[in-house]
Amino acid sequence: MQLRAPAILLSARPHGETAVIARMLTEAEGMVAAYIAGGRGRVLRPVVIPGNLVAADIRSKSDTQLPFASLELVQSRGPWLSEPLPAAAISWVCALSATVMPERNPYPGLYSALSALLDAICNAPSARGWAGALVAYEMLLLRELGYGGGARPDSADFAAVMAAFEGLAQPIEHYLLADRKGDVMAARTLLGARLARISDQG
User: Fold this and answer.
1) Where along the sequence do coiled-coil regions lie (predicted)?
2) Do 135 and 178 have their domain in common?
3) Which of 23, 52, 76 is the last residue of a domain?
4) Is the pLDDT reported for residue 124 higher than 80?
5) How would you write the chain as a 3-class SS string?
6) Residue 69 sits in the same domain as residue 95
7) Other Cβ atoms within 10 Å of 82 Cβ, number
């Protein structure tokens, strides 16, 4: 495998003393896991953040070998990780995507939708500006993986968006996460609690 492409970094698991195993979503190859030497070092630590857009150079000698990757930062989501709501949303959509997407299956629609959602989370003036896109992404993920998805609510109707968000919890747990729902659904529960405060404020 030899691939150089933009990628959305979704997760990074420590490996050895300084390396990480990262899961990245690319448009053409789908989800790719790769070994990143020095991923926890001073230079790469700000790059290996879930939600970041990177230029990934991914290489392996065979299909059975875990690829090695080198990364260059294209767009950082780091500044928004100190904000509770954006941080919770970025954490949730990245954890969900990293957990449920099969490797090496291209989903160009999901890549585009996730890229747009992350941009919205970081650029909208409030969660009301991106909550509808988050629900739409969850629905698209369910549909692309073969489980339907439901009708998208009007993004301008925050109450309808929240009702749809709550209604999607069961199919996400039941179909997408099944036996691996624990820590991943905890991220969604945290996000839901923070979004509910906006509803309570009217």
Assistant:
1) none
2) yes
3) 76
4) yes
5) CEEEEEEEEEEEEEECCCEEEEEEEECCCEEEEEEECCCCCCCCCCCCCCCCEEEEEEECCCCCCCCEEEEEEEECCHHHHHCHHHHHHHHHHHHHHHHHCCECCCCHHHHHHHHHHHHHHHHCCCHHHCHHHHHHHHHHHHHHCCCCCCCCCCCCCHHHHHHHHHHHHHHHHHHHHHHHCHHHHHHHHHHHHHHHHHHHCC
6) no
7) 8
CA pair distance 135, 131, nearest whole angstrom? 6
- Picking from 43, 76, 109, the residue at the C-terminal end of a domain is 76
The residue with tokens 């650029």 is: 123
Q: For 3-12, 48-57, 147-156, which range has the lowest pLDDT when averaged over its residues?
A: 147-156
Is 121 in the same domain as 66?
no
pTM: 0.94
**pLDDT at residue number 98:** 96
Quick one: which of 54, 53, 14, 55 has its CA closest to 36? 14
Same domain, 122 and 39: no
**Are residue 119 and residue 98 in the same domain, yes or no?**
yes
Which pLDDT band holds residue 156 (cuts at 50, 70, 90)?
very high
Regarding whether 150 and 83 lie in a shared domain, the answer is: yes
Do 59 and 86 lie in a common domain?
Answer: no
Mean pLDDT rounded to a whole number for the chain: 93
Domain limits for position 153: 79-200
Does 30 score more than 60 pLDDT?
yes
